[in-house]
Specification:
One of its GO terms (cellular component) is photoreceptor connecting cilium. Helix 2 (71-82) packs across helix 4 (155-167). The chain has helices spanning 18-21, 71-82, 118-124, 155-167, and strands at 4-14, 27-34, 38-41, 46-47, 54-64, 90-98, 109-117, 128-137, 140-153. Helices cover 21% and strands 46% of the residues. 31% of the residues are buried. The protein has a single domain (4-167), classed as Immunoglobulin-like (Sandwich), CATH 2.60.40. Strand 2 and strand 3 form a beta hairpin. Strands 1, 2, 3, 4, 5, 6, 7, 8 and 9 form a nine-stranded antiparallel β-sheet that branches. It is an alpha+beta fold and 168 residues long.
Amino acid sequence: EVEKIRIKITSLGLTESRITSDETIQQLFVECRLNNFLAEETPLSLPKPTGGQKIHYNYSTVLNVDKEDNHVEREYLKSVLLKPDLPADSLKFTVVSDPPEDEQDLECEDIGFAYVSLKEIFQKQRDIIEEDIDVFDSQDASAVIGKLTVTVEALHALRSVHEECKND
């Protein structure tokens, strides 16, 4: 069986903040990053949600973490489990503002970050299924600007990596 981490980005809702009132922010997409070697993003950017609405991406991706072909990912997962002080033990979701077609001189801008701790999934022995996680303002890490609904199924892979650590 190929071991994998399954990630789904379901939807995004914003609370009232500088983001909702900023008219240069119109289209949003979401990037998911694992440490420094993997980044996936939703193929679509969607119009910014207003007033309590959500935008739905329903985007799924799978990261293979089997021994044979995915050594780097595997070693990273080992380090997550073995090194308690590793800061980068999370999947990082970034909400990105995609400039409108007619404003191509504007850059894509990171407007918010959300995190899922792989270590926590292992400690609690529980995958994250369709949970709302906080999105923090990229300019003020204490401010929550919305909720991202995500699924992260990693427990099976983490258990397998953990078994391997014990046998090393």
